[in-house]
Amino acid sequence: VNGSGLSTEGRLTPATLVDLLAMARSNDVHTADLLATLATVGGEGTLHSRVHVGRGLVRAKTGTIGTVSALSGVVASPDGSRMLGFSILVNGHDAVATRPAQDAMVAALV
Questions:
Q1: How far apart (Å, rounded) are the C-alpha atoms in residues 84 and 18?
Q2: In the chain, how long is the greatest CA-to-CA distance?
Q3: CB 78 within 8 A of CB 55
Q4: Could you give the CA distance from residue 17 to residue 35 in angstroms, rounded to a whole number?
Q5: Closest by CA position to 58, among listed 43, 97, 45, 66
Q6: How far apart, in whole angstroms, are the C-alpha atoms of residue 3 and residue 99?
Q7: CA distance 101 to 82
Q8: CA 21 – CA 15 distance, rounded (Å)
Q9: 40: which strand partners?
Q10: Which residues contact residue 105 at a Cβ distance below 8 angstroms, ignoring those fewer than 6 apart?
């Protein structure tokens, strides 16, 4: 299995990614730590200067290669009792130019 994201045989749909995030919210020992590995908005990593709202409420993973840009993660309610999964994959456009639109979609969920 090629987990690099570079193989055309390892494609996932946004719905599949959101399903994976929902499974991570379960109490299963094998998935419980997945959400903790995601970067937080305003923290270190690729989300440091993205999605300028929702500090502490948004955890996500970015991905960019060529003309493909991805932003997938969760938005927590302010009290942390509920989470909404999201996955925004853009293919065939300037990856950097699509980031503001992805960020705006996530900001609308906060």
A1: 9
A2: 40
A3: no
A4: 12
A5: 43
A6: 23
A7: 24
A8: 10
A9: 59
A10: 86, 88
User: Beta strand 83-91 with 68-76: parallel, antiparallel or unpaired?
Assistant: antiparallel
pLDDT tens-digit map of 10-51: 777 888 888 888 888 776 666 668 888 888 988 888 888 888
- Lay out the sheet containing 68-76: strands in order across: 39-40, 58-65, 68-76, 83-91
Q: Kindly state the tokens that stand for 66.
A: 């060529």
Its pTM stands at 0.83
Write out the two tokens for 107.
Answer: 């900001």
| Distance, CA of 50 to CA of 47 (rounded, Å) | 5
Both tokens of 84, joined, read 């909404």
